Amino acid sequence: MASTLDELNESSEKRPYFTVSQLWTDTLGRLGVRSLQLLIVGTLVGLVILALLNLTVVVIPALIAVILACALWPLVRLCRRVMPNVLAAWTVFLGSLLILGGIGTALVFSVINEWSTLVEQAVEGFNQLREGAEQLLGGLAFVIDQDQIDSMLATVTGFLTSAEFGTGAVTTISAAGTFVTSLVLLLVILFFLLKDGDRIWAFFVSWAPDHFRAQTIASGDRAMHTFGGYIRGTAIVAAADAIGITTALLILQVPLAIPLGVVVFLGGFIPLVGATIAGILATLVALVANGPVVALIVLGAVILVNQLEGNFLQPVVMAQTLSLHALVILMALTAGTVLAGIIGAVLAVPLVAVAWSVIKVWTGREEIEGLGPVDKAQLQIEAVGDERRHQLREAKRQEQAEKAAAKATKSSDDMESDDDNA
After folding, report:
1. Cα-Cα-Cα-Cα dihedral of 367, 371, 377, 381, to 10°?
2. Tens digits of residue pLDDT in 18-40
3. Nearest-CA neighbor of 295 among 239, 253, 242?
4. What are the tens digits of pLDDT across the range 60-75?
5. In 3D, which of 72, 61, 94 has the Cα closest to residue 184?
6. How far is CA 154 from its chain centroid?
7. How far is Cα 302 from Cα 321, in angstroms, rounded to an integer?
8. Most exposed residue of 110, 209, 263, 308, measured as fewest CB within 10 angstroms of its CB?
């Protein structure tokens, strides 16, 4: 009996081969825990996005106000040197409303007044292009359903000339009451950000733990510079595009030159695709009003302006602001358009740029001087590739030398055996 108890005690002291804790500590368990964490984080992010989409009346004005405040903050700091904070805020706020608001309102109303004619000209230009394409493809085995094309054109034309599209294109909010509420909220938030923006940011920083405070301050600084630089840089680039294309339209005496220039300027705030679509619209109007020769000249002017912008102006103006790959910009535009329409397309790129700037601050990837982490990694990849190719060449050279030595040894052995036989 005693021996049996001793055996049981000894077996209880032995660690079993399999334990429940191993379910969480082995490779599969760690992957399961990490997957569960990712699911929880993804669920929380989805809930936050869903809540923000249901509060667009508050979220969109707040985001626009923050971006505009970042762009106008250098003027506020300049005015604070010679006047109190409240007076500096009022000066910048009212000055911005009078200048930007007045010019913007006049331009937008000029586009709205000429919008029906603009759409008719564009549709007529598309019809001419379609007829040319049908004549070109007439001898080929392509079948174009005329009824579907006419139905699509009628739908697009009716929507573009409707009041609903005019309201949605300018405000992206269908109800006039909601638009007024959002506009008033935007102006109120913008004024308080211009007046007490530094104090509001200091309040949020005060809640950050001491060991994270430096990264928090750096994140806010990068966000402010990214937002402000993006708006200022985009406005400069869009104005250059609008001036260049409008000048070409005026020289060629294309009708609706000023409204088309306004459309080009507004389209410049949608990266990659906005200016291109506006240029196509100007080309279609020139095709209808002035014929194919002038349309080709306008198309050449649009291409020239876009090339000058992409290769010279934009790298100089926005080199330090928008360090995003074109694929990232395209994906952000698509996601922003799906989630929030035109406003989403306008806000998506600066938000992604700010998010990337903040991520670089918190991950230590921000390089003030010298090469960035991606450039260093690329150089390392090239160095490893060069080293690998050098090793392969050396190994091949050594193998050839060994083969030559073995061949020489074999030849000498054969000669010795021939001498022995002789």
Report:
1. 180
2. 566 666 677 777 888 888 889 99
3. 253
4. 888 888 888 988 888 9
5. 61
6. 33
7. 25
8. 209
| Residue 256: CB atoms within 10 Å | 23
9 assigned to some structural domain: no
Flag whether 200 is in a domain.
yes
CA dihedral sign of residues 310, 314, 316, 321: negative
- Alpha-carbon distance of 173 to 285, in angstroms, equals 28
- Domain interval for residue 81: 50-138+173-367
Q: Which two tokens stand for residue 38?
A: 């990712």
Instruction: Render 225-269 in DSSP notation, one character per residue.
Output: HHHHHHHHHHHHHHHHHHHHHHHHHHHTT-TTHHHHHHHHHHHTT
Domain count, the chain: 1
- What tokens does 137 get? 């493809």
Rounded Cα distance between 146 and 399, Å, is 70
394, 124, 73, 363: which is closest to 228 by C-alpha? 73
- Give 359's pLDDT tier (boundaries 50, 70, 90): confident
331 part of a folded domain: yes
CA distance 422 to 413: 14
- Contact, 262 vs 104, CB < 8 A? no
Report d(CA 422, CA 414) in Å as an integer: 12
What are the angstrom distances between the C-alpha of 113 and each of 53, 65, 253, 310? Answer: 32, 28, 20, 32
CA distance 180 to 139: 56
Q: Is residue 380 part of a domain?
A: no
